[in-house]
């Protein structure tokens, strides 16, 4: 539709619509004519109401608006120029606006509504085809649309189009479909912050989101390239206004399905046709350059740091490769760049340097062969991201243009592996071998050629084929083919070998042979891996069977794989005592900290090094006993602080144990006392038993007797009953009239300490101990020890359990003093009672009741219960205590007070039957301890009792006060000849060299499986400790050897840093490979991964042979130095060794891999030549662009300089005019002005491109006229259209 047609029919699109509009116009004319014929009287206000007047005004207003629109539609005929803006609205809407019979504008708005611009476009905002519009449209001028929208309103975005001249017909028409530009940006998107979680390792990450598409921009063909850039700047980049000439460049590209961001390398190498828009076209319309219809891809290049990115890229890549020979030279350069340490990433850097310099791996990634084998859908892989990241890093490391920088940062690679492995996500030190193993597996899965893995059952040999070598070879082939059916990649081609594993049942001799793949060969070092610890040995054997020092130090040597049982057997053999008499505890602050017997079931399955740490203080007690008749009770020794003001009692020495016969000694106070004196002698050089006898014998009138009677106790005889008798007296028992039962120390006790309410730190320590030892076996233990420091105030005197008579004899020296004190108190109490009786008043009731304050603690009245019923009372009291114990968690504070008061009052409670208090004093029945009937008594001490010797301070100073008197401070050591010999042998091994062949030989040493690693025998139908032998069946072309220097590689718990002598060239392992088919077993060293340091970490470096120049280099993170001699790589820090099979072929691996490498190299070399050609094309366009920009800048500067000179001359002439005063000088001034004008015109020359004649020079005359002359410079040299492939 031409513009003339549009204006002639008011931009109609159908005959019917034109008729309606003409009818409306004619109606408006008739109304206007009728209104002009009205008389003046008719025009005067009538007697009608104000409402009628208002309606008439609205009618006149609507009429005027319709007349205005009609006039604009008629006046716009044959007007408008190319580029003018027109708007499209519904033809029906315009017809109703002009035709709808209404009285006023308000009614029209109510019935017609606002202009709906959304109804004439589709969901994407595009106009429908002109011949298939659901709603016909009109093209109206901008002025008409502004009037209509201000009167009626608008819904949606106005639809505007520009007027354009049809190049074929020359007619004016509205541009219904402008050009669409798909805008791309040069460069990579900004790095996204990857948010990781603690549970990332359990969920494999999803594939990354697709890249954003290009942004479409619609622009009229009448707009200029300046308008295009300004539209992109404001709508896409949203940046402040910049100089379009200097900060933006537009490239037209011919490529489909490109993302918004296009990397520089992809733009240069992967996009075919590309054209740069020069400055000469910035002011030209898009239509003038042949851009008339369709969609165009354009790329915006934004200047960064005063330079365009492509300029820098071209500068660094120009003239790199021009021929195929030059391309081939790239394979013999590079490989000298270090890797920056990002924070404890030396383990990664060293392993990467070794792997990057494997020739086959290097070429496979450098020639981009890996891209052909990416398996992005492998559920065990990583969507190809690990392989892509590794390939990108390899190309950076071997880029010869980057050799001057010294190092590169592997940050992108570190970020990639961190997303897929939580172990390597942070910046903690890790093990290089574990990282290499993970990386090889990740590359294998990303590059696995098998997309659908078949199910394969592992084959086995029949029993009659075990000794058949042919059957074994066939089994190995079957296992290898099954592995290749599921795993086939470049890693499998180069690294994978086979182990032969043989298991033999110790009972039935059933033999099982299997084959398993491996990527790295872990070799044990053929030295003794020992665990050492120094124990304190405390020998509590009876004095008559043991002489000499009772406390000794013993250093123990065990294998690192030994367990707790091995330790017990070692100690039992060395100390020549049954293991049942050995008890091992950890001591801390003179108290028990750990009971290894309690966790025996768990300890027997753990290495001894995990159970006992280096700094643990461990005591081994030798306690001979009879488990059936004896009990073993822990004993602590304590003494009150010499400073009485503090009232602090301290535990000293080490805890001890006393063995008591349950039926004879545990019920006798004297026997317990005797045992404690004997066991306390272990802590001092003083013989306490002899000293005890010496003190007794030194007493005046000493008479030695086996048993003393009551009359031997002169102080007690006056208050005792009975007649004198000889022999054993149950009341006297083993009491001695010359020495009290608490002489030197007081025996204290507490029953079942672990079940009592604990206080303060003891309580929390007990809770911790229970949580630490979940499997509490205390009920079945021979000894119950408190795993916390006992509270002294909770102990009570053991003598309190004795009946009063017997207690008096054991403590006879205190009886008289106590009696005198009681008599004095009795007399005093009688006097007070007499005074109180006189002061009684009449207020006392007849019943003589007394009010007692319930808050006052009154001792309970305890009835005397005969022995026959005391047992039931004891049971009742025990039940009450048990109830209190069960409720102690719910009512902790109250029950603690209750339990305390209960035990505090035990002296007033009736004693339990069978105790020494229940045995009547019967002097007429003399008997010995063996037949005294004490075996029927309740014992004073049980297996749940804890004893404490509270030492008198004076006696303590005499026996333990000086350091030379104690035996627990300076402890002598037991000689261990076997350990000393082994240690000397080990030191010789450390100083001597061990050959790598020794390590390979030790690899095949048979070993017996441990208790926690049993093998299920299919013949015996049981788990057995089978004998396992692992042999090397076959090896890969790249042999990675892991020297097992760490006992626990993850924690670096121990390191063996002896020197392993490994060959640089000619490692021959043919005698250690079981496969008879594999004969080429000679390898040459290509890389070494080193570890320096010891426990807790260290530092990794790499010594690598660069196959591109055949020189050795030392890579210490970012620092790279050359190694003069290959022998320098043999150090005691060698951890991983990389060997390459010696071969006459150029490449190793499978035939398929060799073919791919050769073909990939040729394609890569040709691609380098093609890339250089692409760079040259871009460089030429950029060069011409720069030359034109430089000329333009010079011209702008020249114009500025001419303008500045003009202003200076004008100012100078003005000053001269003001100074001249004479008429003669004025004439000279006029003459000077004319000359100045002529000179100024010469300086005002400008270059203007006029039409197609670019060699025109416009000369500005003094009279203001412009004369066009020929220019001596052909401006086409610096101005013109797009260069080389321009639009």
From TrEMBL:
The keyword Protease applies. One of its GO terms (molecular function) is cysteine-type deubiquitinase activity. Residues 915-927, 1250-1273 have a biased composition (Polar residues). Residues 193-216, 814-847, 866-939, 1209-1287 are annotated as: Disordered. Residues 60-164 form the DUSP domain. InterPro entries: DUSP-like_sf, Papain-like_cys_pep_sf, Pept_C19_DUSP, Peptidase_C19_UCH, Ub_carboxyl-term_hydrolase, USP, USP_CS. GO terms for biological process: protein deubiquitination; proteolysis. Residues 206-216 have a biased composition (Pro residues). The keyword RNA-binding does not apply. It is an enzyme of class 3 (hydrolase). It catalyses: Thiol-dependent hydrolysis of ester, thioester, amide, peptide and isopeptide bonds formed by the C-terminal Gly of ubiquitin (a 76-residue protein attached to proteins as an intracellular targeting signal). Residues 867-881 have a biased composition (Low complexity). Its EC number is 3.4.19.12. Keywords: Hydrolase, Protease, Thiol protease, Ubl conjugation pathway. Belongs to the peptidase C19 family. This is ubiquitinyl hydrolase 1. It comes from Spathaspora passalidarum (strain NRRL Y-27907 / 11-Y1).
């Amino acid at each position: 539709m031409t513009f003339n047609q549009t204006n002639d029919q008011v931009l109609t699109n159908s005959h019917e619509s034109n008729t309606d509009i003409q009818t409306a116009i004619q109606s408006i004319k008739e109304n206007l004519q009728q209104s002009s014929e009205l008389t003046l009287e008719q025009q005067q206000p009538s007697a009608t109401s104000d409402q009628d007047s208002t309606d008439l005004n609205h009618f006149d207003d609507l009429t005027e608006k319709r007349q205005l629109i009609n006039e604009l539609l008629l006046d716009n005929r044959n007007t408008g120029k190319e580029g003018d803006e027109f708007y499209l609205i519904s033809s029906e809407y315009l017809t109703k606006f002009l035709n709808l019979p209404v009285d006023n504008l308000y009614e029209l708005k109510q019935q017609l509504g606002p202009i709906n611009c959304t109804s004439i476009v589709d969901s994407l905002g595009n106009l429908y085809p002109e011949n298939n519009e659901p709603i016909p449209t009109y093209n109206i001028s901008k002025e008409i649309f502004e009037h209509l929208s201000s009167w009626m309103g608008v819904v949606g975005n106005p639809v505007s189009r520009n007027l354009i001249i049809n190049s074929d017909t020359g007619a004016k028409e509205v541009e219904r479909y402008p050009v669409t530009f798909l805008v791309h940006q040069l460069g990579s998107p900004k790095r996204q912050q990857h948010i990781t979680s603690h549970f990332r390792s359990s969920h494999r990450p999803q594939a990354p989101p697709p890249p954003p598409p290009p942004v479409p921009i619609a622009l009229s063909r009448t707009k200029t390239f300046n308008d295009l850039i300004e539209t992109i700047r404001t709508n896409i980049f949203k940046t402040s206004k910049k100089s379009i000439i200097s900060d933006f460049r537009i490239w037209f590209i011919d490529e489909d399905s490109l993302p918004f961001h296009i990397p520089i390398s992809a733009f240069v190498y992967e996009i075919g046709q590309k054209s740069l828009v020069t400055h000469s076209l910035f002011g030209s319309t898009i239509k003038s350059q042949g851009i008339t219809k369709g969609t165009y891809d354009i790329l915006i290049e934004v200047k960064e740091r005063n330079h365009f990115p492509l300029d820098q890229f071209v500068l660094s890549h120009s003239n790199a490769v021009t021929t195929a020979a030059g391309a081939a030279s790239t394979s013999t350069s590079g490989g000298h760049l270090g890797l920056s340490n990002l924070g404890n990433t030396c383990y990664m850097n060293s392993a990467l340097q070794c792997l990057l310099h494997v020739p086959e791996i290097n070429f496979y990634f450098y020639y981009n062969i890996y891209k052909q084998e990416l398996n992005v859908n492998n559920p065990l892989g990583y969507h190809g991201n690990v392989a892509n990241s590794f390939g990108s890093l390899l190309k950076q490391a071997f880029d010869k243009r980057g050799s001057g920088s010294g190092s590169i940062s592997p940050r992108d690679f570190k970020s990639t592996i961190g997303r897929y492995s939580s172990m390597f996500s942070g910046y903690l030190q890790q093990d290089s071998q574990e990282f290499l193993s993970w990386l090889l597996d990740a590359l294998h899965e990303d590059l696995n050629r098998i997309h659908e893995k078949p199910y394969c059952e592992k084959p086995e040999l029949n029993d009659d084929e075990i000794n058949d070598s042919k059957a074994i070879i066939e089994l190995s082939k079957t296992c290898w083919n099954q592995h290749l059916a599921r795993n086939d990649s470049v890693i499998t081609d180069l690294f994978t070998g086979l182990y032969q594993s043989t298991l033999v049942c110790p009972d039935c001799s059933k033999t099982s042979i299997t084959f398993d793949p491996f990527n790295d060969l872990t070799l044990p070092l053929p030295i003794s891996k020992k665990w050492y610890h120094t124990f304190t040995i405390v020998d509590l054997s009876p004095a008559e069977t043991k002489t000499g020092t009772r406390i000794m130090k013993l250093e123990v040597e065990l294998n690192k794989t030994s367990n707790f049982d091995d330790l017990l057997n070692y100690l039992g053999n060395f100390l020549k005592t049954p293991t049942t008499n050995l008890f091992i505890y950890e001591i801390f602050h003179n108290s028990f900290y750990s009971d290894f017997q309690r966790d025996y079931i768990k300890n027997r399955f753990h290495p001894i090094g995990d159970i006992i740490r280096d700094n643990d203080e461990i005591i081994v007690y030798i306690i001979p006993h009879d488990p059936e008749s004896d009990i073993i009770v822990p004993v602590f020794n304590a003494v009150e602080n010499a400073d009485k003001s503090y009232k602090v009692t301290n535990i000293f020495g080490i805890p001890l144990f006393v063995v008591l016969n349950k039926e004879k000694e545990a019920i006798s106070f004297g026997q317990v006392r005797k045992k404690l004196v004997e066991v306390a002698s272990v802590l001092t050089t003083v013989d306490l038993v002899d000293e005890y006898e010496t003190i007794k014998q030194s007493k005046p009138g000493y008479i030695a007797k086996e048993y003393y009677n009551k009359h031997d106790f002169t102080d007690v005889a006056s208050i005792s009953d009975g007649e004198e008798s000889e022999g054993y007296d149950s009341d006297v028992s083993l009491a001695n009239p010359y020495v009290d039962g608490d002489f030197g120390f007081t025996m204290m006790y507490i029953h079942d300490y672990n079940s009592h309410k604990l206080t303060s730190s003891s309580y929390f320590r007990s809770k911790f101990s229970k949580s630490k030892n979940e499997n509490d076996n205390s009920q079945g233990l021979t000894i119950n020890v408190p795993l916390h420091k006992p509270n002294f105030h909770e102990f009570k005197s053991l003598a309190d359990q004795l009946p009063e008579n017997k207690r008096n004899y054991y403590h006879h020296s205190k009886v008289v003093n106590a009696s005198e004190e009681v008599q004095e108190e009795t007399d005093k109490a009688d006097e007070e009672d007499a005074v109180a009786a006189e002061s009684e008043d009449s207020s006392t009731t007849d019943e003589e009741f007394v009010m007692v304050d319930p808050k006052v603690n009154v001792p309970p009245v305890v009835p005397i219960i005969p022995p026959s019923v005391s047992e039931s009372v004891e049971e009742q009291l025990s039940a009450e205590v048990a109830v209190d114990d069960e409720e102690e968690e719910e009512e902790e504070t109250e029950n603690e007070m209750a339990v305390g008061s209960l035990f505090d009052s035990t002296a007033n409670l009736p004693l339990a039957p069978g105790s020494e208090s229940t045995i009547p004093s019967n002097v007429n029945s003399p008997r010995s301890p063996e037949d005294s009937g004490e075996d029927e008594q309740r014992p004073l001490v049980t297996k749940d009792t804890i004893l404490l010797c509270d030492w008198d301070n004076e006696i303590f100073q005499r026996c333990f006060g000086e350091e030379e008197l104690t035996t627990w401070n300076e402890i002598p050591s037991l000689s261990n000849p076997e350990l000393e010999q082994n240690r000397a042998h080990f030191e010789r091994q450390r100083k001597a060299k061990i050959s790598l062949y020794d390590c390979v030989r030790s690899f095949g040493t048979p070993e017996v499986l441990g208790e926690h690693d049993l093998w299920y025998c299919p013949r015996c139908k049981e788990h057995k400790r089978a004998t396992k032998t692992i042999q090397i069946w076959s090896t890969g072309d790249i042999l990675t050897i892991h020297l097992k220097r760490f006992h626990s590689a993850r924690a670096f718990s121990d390191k063996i840093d002896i020197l392993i002598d490994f060959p640089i060239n000619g490692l021959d392992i043919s005698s250690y490979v079981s496969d008879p088919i594999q004969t080429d077993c000679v390898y040459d060293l290509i890389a070494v991964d080193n570890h320096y340091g010891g426990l807790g970490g260290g530092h990794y470096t790499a010594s690598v042979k660069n196959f591109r120049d055949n020189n050795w280099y030392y890579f210490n993170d970012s620092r790279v130095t050359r190694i003069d001699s290959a022998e320098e790589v043999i150090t005691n820090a060698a951890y991983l060794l990389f060997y390459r099979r010696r071969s006459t072929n150029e490449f190793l691996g499978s035939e398929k891999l060799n073919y791919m490498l050769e073909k990939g190299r040729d394609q890569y070399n040709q691609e380098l030549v093609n890339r250089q050609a692409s760079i040259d094309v871009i460089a030429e366009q950029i060069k011409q662009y720069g030359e034109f920009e430089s000329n333009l800048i010079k011209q702008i500067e020249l114009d500025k300089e001419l303008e500045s000179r003009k202003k200076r001359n004008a100012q100078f002439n003005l000053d001269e005019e003001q100074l001249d005063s004479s008429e003669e000088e004025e004439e000279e001034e006029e003459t000077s002005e004319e000359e100045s004008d002529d000179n100024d015109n010469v300086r005002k020359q400008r270059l203007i491109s006029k039409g197609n004649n670019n060699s025109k020079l416009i000369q500005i005359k003094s009279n203001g006229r412009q004369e066009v002359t020929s220019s001596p410079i052909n401006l086409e040299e610096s101005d013109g259209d797009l260069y080389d492939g321009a639009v």
